[in-house]
Amino acid sequence: MDPDIETLDDDALMVLFANADPSAAKLLTTRLLPRALGHALRVLGNEAEAEDVAQEAMLKLWNAAKDWDQGGAARPSTWLYRVVANLCVDRLRKSGRSVGMDPDFDPADDAPGPLEALEHSGRLAALDGALAKLPERQRQAVVLRHIEGLSNPEIALALDIGVEAVESLTARGKRALAAALQGQKEALGYGG
Amino acid sequence: MVDDSKKEDGLEMFFAEAQADAARNPSNDLMARVLADAADVQAVSLAQGVMVMTPAATGGGVAGLLSAIGGWFGASGVVAAGLTGLVMGFYLPDQIDTVLNGQVSSILGEDAANLLPGFETLTLTAMAE
User: Which residue in B has a C-alpha nearest to residue A108's C-alpha?
Assistant: First the structure.
């Protein structure tokens, strides 16, 4: 892969992709697929479903490339989060789940070894368990804001809601998480 | 008074750990499926005669050509004109074979050399349909 292409931003890569550049496909996949997969996994709590959603979202991205507005409001990553969010909502509603994850899902399942790794995976499991109890919109807003690092306007674009609604969702979600996790901090190694 | 800062701290510690874990490494199988989908979409575009560019196999910086191409699209309005079935191959031939009889230079005008570095080595080939 030409090193120069790696300096291009995602918008430019979308244009290249639309012009049949295979390197653009590989670079966009490397940059965007991990976060799409991570977000889907956090919302759905099921690895197989998360992979299906991530693949479907990337396919929509490929098909959107030919009409991509390089100077548009949404970056490809924000656009992809929106698609992932919508696909996750569709899946949850079809399966009758509005909250809760696969009860067999345990992100710490394959955590190996040292005590720190175990404590880390334990904390993540506790956070994921608490997130699973949130209503789906609150969960998505909190994850996008505090884990994926999107700004409120970006989350508003991704979830197709207003910025004030994002702020309300994240505030309510965080209050619920704080209540759920407060009693576990010491046990999870956050004591003191 | 409720000490919200401690609750905030508690959440921030959890979030910080989760941020490090936010992106999930896709399996090789998933990567392959996504890239296969990408190739399929691009193949359909090619079959439909959407403009295709093939970067030079040797020499030159791609980024310069790419930025020039972006400028060329903007300047020439070729895409807006809806030209299809046009394949551009960037080569380094001994001689230029301009099938379009200098139409590129007429489109770009005197900016041709500025917008397309290496323009003198550009070969345009119309794809027969």
Answer: B21
Residuewise pLDDT in 10s, chain A (192 residues): 676 888 899 999 999 999 988 899 999 999 999 999 998 988 888 899 999 999 999 999 999 998 888 777 678 988 888 899 889 888 888 877 654 445 554 544 444 444 555 566 678 878 888 888 899 999 999 999 999 889 999 999 999 999 999 999 999 999 999 988 887 666 666 654
Q: Give the integer Cα–Cα distance in Å for A189 and A124.
A: 12
> Residue B100: helix, strand or coil by DSSP?
coil
Query: How many angstroms separate the CA atoms of A60 and A192, rounded?
Result: 47
What are residue B17's DSSP bridge partners?
none
Tell me the C-alpha distance between A157 and B56, whole Å.
Answer: 38
- Cβ contacts (< 8 Å) between B38 and chain A: which residues? 17, 22, 25, 28-29, 58, 62
DSSP label of A99: S
Nearest to B35 among A26, A174, A190 (CB): A26
The tokens of A152 are what? 């409120």
Task: Give this complex's ipTM.
Answer: 0.72
Helix, strand, or coil (residue B124): strand
- Chain B residues with CB under 8 Å of A118 CB are none
CB pairs under 8 A between A and B: 132
A177 inside 8 A of chain B by CB: yes
